[in-house]
TrEMBL record:
It comes from the Bacteria. Gene3D superfamilies: Putative methyltransferase TM0872, insert domain (1.10.150.170), Vaccinia Virus protein VP39 (3.40.50.150). GO terms for cellular component: cytoplasm. Pfam families: Methyltransf_5 (PF01795). GO terms for biological process: rRNA base methylation. This is 16S rRNA (Cytosine(1402)-N(4))-methyltransferase.
Amino acid sequence: MGFHHVPVLLAEVLTYLAPRQGGRYMDGTVGGAGHSAAILKEAGAQAHLIGFDQDPRALAAAEQRLQPYGGQVTLVHENFRRLRQVAEQLDVVGKVDGILLDLGVSSHQLDEVDRGFMYRMDAPLDMRMNPQGALTAAQIVNTYPSPSRNPMEPSMVSVETVFFPN
């Protein structure tokens, strides 16, 4: 399945980020690059965007979508929590005009059976944003110590109590 991405709240992101001509921006969750492409379009030919994603498939999709912007784009295979360290490496600390974090799982990740986010089909419980990460959700659920057999059970019970009281 190809990486299809429709950016959410695009007009609002552009309104509040207000890209300026020649600006430098960071997209901490570049994903399919819908927001990034719009930011670059608004900010013009002298703009630069640094895009982060821990999902290699998302980075490949972003690279393809942002290809028309060539040298205006730096893509980084990292979690946005390392944004500061990457900014230091790129010598852009204090030189960035805006940062976008579109937090959450993407529909692409939910739709790919092998990613293990899907509950509609039988698939291994993976749920890693970075498929090269060490722990799968199955390992956590099945091996982490807990007073109950399932470490998620206390959370499920409290959610059940809130949404489905007797």
